[in-house]
Design goal:
- The chain is of the alpha/beta class.
- It has three domains: 192 residues, Sandwich (Jelly Rolls); 62 residues, no CATH class; 276 residues, Glycosidases (TIM Barrel).
- The protein is built from 13 helices and 24 strands.
- Strands 11-12-13-14-15-16-18-19 form an eight-stranded parallel β-barrel, surrounded by five helices. Strands 1-8-3-6 form a four-stranded antiparallel beta sheet.
- α3 crosses α12 and α10 runs parallel beside α11.
- The chain is globular and about 85 Å long.
- It binds 2-acetamido-2-deoxy-beta-D-glucopyranose (2 copies).
- The site of one 2-acetamido-2-deoxy-beta-D-glucopyranose has 6 residues, from β10 and β23.
- This is GH10 domain-containing protein.
Length: 595
């Protein structure tokens, strides 16, 4: 399971900037004439600049209201996980950073900006300054390089309310440029600042930086556009009578009955004895993860005596309802005494037992935080265990499962760049190149940084393996419901995310951090929001009718549908199941009693 979001006490050398930003890193544009005098900005020019900006933002405020949708900049999902010799162009042409106030340019000129210079002692320097809007998400991107050495760099966006938001953290190298993607939300209007922090004693160069504002409405609009693109498809249903003639004006009612975007929840053994629990769970979810029942310490808590009765029964129950099961987890939750031999035995035992029956295995769990196995068994221990699991069962996608990668930019251990480096190491272990991999993100949230979540998903998606939010929950608080909805929508809309599993396993004695129901299986507000999303994500057009050619066309969520046909030539309703996931066209022959 998880260790709750460890609050990290960060002792940062606030690295300060001796340095220096070139006035603008976007090429001059005629409409930005005020930029040319930036490098020598005096107090006075700063003032007049500010006045200008206030003007500008007022103007854009006004025009914004009326024609938001056609003016909004599309969100850029691209990211780059290579260390590049030259930094590519900034996203969004740099966004509002093209107007940022900056200190004097670097002596060497060009567009490369010296953002920080640390020697043995922290050095004071300066930051980029700009105006921020209220209730606005800011997407940040930047290319970074050290003059020597390698280490973590944190981007900090100071919002007008004085809050220091970690907008992203990344491993930066020397000799090539690495892309950081992240962001933060501003809930107030006024001056904002951006700076970087690092403990590495070197010069930190930045290039192709961009900070792009999106109103909350724009952010939602991008999500909706992405949902239409990623989760729906245009389908065409032709309805014919038993004679093969098209039936115009047939009334159709559609219901999605299978497939579609996988949405699941954690399940506990109590489900075996409680019909109301069984009914509640199986009527909602298409995926299940056993909370603890498949773990090593559950199946072999008495060393040498394996007990699989409970997980066997839970699996059979899931199968009965065509619910897919994620294997959680092959390898973790062990005492120090259990070592290599025990491990090999465990792999054989659990993986072979459920071979062919699971869609996923969480092969290594939370291993970016706890390197117990790597420490004991060598640096390739994870690569070996992936290979071993694949040998015993070639059906499931094999996952790393980790917390804080998208939840907590201040946790240096599981950063997206480190996650990808570990995945690459596992993939390059001899014999592992052809295995099916997955990126498991536990997603245990407190207060989410939504732009950071999306930016991190963009980065992780570059590995081109399916991403699942494997254990999503939000701690109790006044905004629990709102945050959960927002996060589930982010996951559902993101092109890289292929499934979501909630971590809301029901126990009579209480849930881990989030319960969807009370003890009578009556939904709590969090459960209601989950149900609302389930309904929304399989919503179908009302009043569906075939045209005069007997054809009905629509944009539907992926899935398998039961289509019921009502037509004046038919005595009874006719129902057929059509798979609109693998195909986008179907012909229904409404056989049966006709008038
Ligand atoms: C700098 O070092 C401190 C102390 O080890 C650590 O807590 C902090 O996260 C480091 N900062 C960065 C940006 O790596
Ligand atoms: C969908 O249709 C099939 C027959 O084609 C039927 O067995 C099944 O019960 C239907 N499902 C629902 C939810 O109506």
């Amino acid at each position: 399971m998880k260790v709750l979001t460890a609050t990290l006490v960060l002792l940062l050398f606030i690295v300060l900037f001796q340095g220096c930003l070139a006035a603008s890193y976007k090429s001059d544009e005629s409409d930005k004439k005020e930029k040319s005098d930036k490098p020598e900005k005096s107090d006075e020019s700063e003032k007049s600049d500010k006045a200008e900006k206030t003007d500008k933002s007022e103007k854009s405020d006004k025009s914004d209201k009326s024609d938001k949708s056609d003016k909004s900049v599309p969100y850029d999902y691209s990211a780059n996980i290579e260390c590049e010799k030259e930094p590519p162009k900034p996203l969004y042409g740099g966004g509002i950073l093209t107007d940022a106030e900056a200190p004097a340019p670097v002596a060497t000129g060009g567009k490369k900006l010296l953002m920080a210079k640390t020697t043995s002692a922290p050095v004071k320097g300066s930051t980029l300054k700009f105006e921020l809007e209220k209730d606005t998400h800011y997407a940040l991107s930047a290319w970074l390089q050290f003059s020597k050495s390698t280490g973590d760099v944190r981007a900090v966006l100071v919002t007008p309310d004085g809050k220091f938001n970690t907008a992203g953290m990344i491993v930066v190298q020397s000799g090539c440029w690495t892309m950081l993607k992240g962001g933060a939300t501003s809930f107030s209007a006024g001056k904002g600042e951006l700076f970087f922090e690092t403990n590495v004693t070197a010069e930190l160069m930045a290039d192709s930086m961009a900070l792009q504002p999106f109103t909350f409405e724009e952010w939602k609009l991008h999500r909706d556009e992405s949902i239409t693109k990623e989760r729906k498809k245009k389908v065409k249903i032709t309805v014919q009578g038993s004679d093969g003639k098209e039936l115009p004006d047939a009334e159709l009612s559609l219901e999605r009955v299978a497939k579609g975007f996988p949405l699941g929840n954690a399940m506990t053994k109590e489900i075996l004895d409680m019909p109301e629990y069984e009914k509640w769970f199986t009527s909602r979810f298409t995926v299940a993860t056993m909370e603890n029942e498949m773990k090593w310490d559950s199946t072999e808590y008495d060393k040498g005596h394996e007990l699989y009765e409970i997980p066997d029964k839970m699996l059979a129950l899931a199968e009965k309802y065509k619910i897919s099961v994620r294997g959680h987890n092959a390898w973790s939750g062990l005492s120090v005494a259990q070592l290599k031999e025990a491990m090999a035995k465990r792999m054989k035992s659990v993986v072979s037992r459920y071979a062919g029956k699971l869609i996923h295995w969480d092969v290594v769990n939370e291993n970016l935080h706890f390197s117990f196995f790597e420490d004991k068994l060598g640096k390739d221990a994870s690569g070996e265990v992936f290979k071993e699991v694949a040998k015993l069962d070639d059906k499931p996608i094999l996952f790393m499962n980790e917390y804080n990668t998208i939840e907590e930019p201040n946790d240096g251990a599981p950063l997206p760049t480190k996650y990808l480096a570990k995945l690459k190491q596992i993939q390059s272990y001899p014999g592992n190149s052809k295995l099916k991999y997955g990126i498991g993100l536990e997603s245990h949230f407190a207060i989410p940084n939504i732009p950071y979540v999306r930016g991190s998903l963009d980065t992780l998606a570059q590995a081109k393996v399916p991403i699942w939010l494997t254990e999503i929950d939000v701690i109790k608080g006044p905004k629990q419901v709102e945050y959960l909805e927002e996060l589930m929508r982010e996951g559902f809309a993101h092109p890289g995310v292929k499934g979501i599993v909630l971590w809301a396993a029901w126990h009579a004695k209480g849930c881990y951090v989030m319960c969807l129901t009370d003890n009578k299986f009556k939904n709590l507000p969090v459960g209601d929001v989950v149900d609302k999303l389930i309904a929304e994500w399989k919503d179908v057009p009302k009043d569906a009718k075939t045209d005069d050619k007997g054809v009905f066309e629509a944009e539907l969520f992926h899935g398998e549908y039961n289509v019921t046909v009502k037509h004046k030539s038919l005595k009874e309703l006719f129902m057929e199941t059509v798979d609109l996931d693998s195909k986008s066209e179907a012909t229904i022959k409404a056989k049966g009693k006709e008038y």
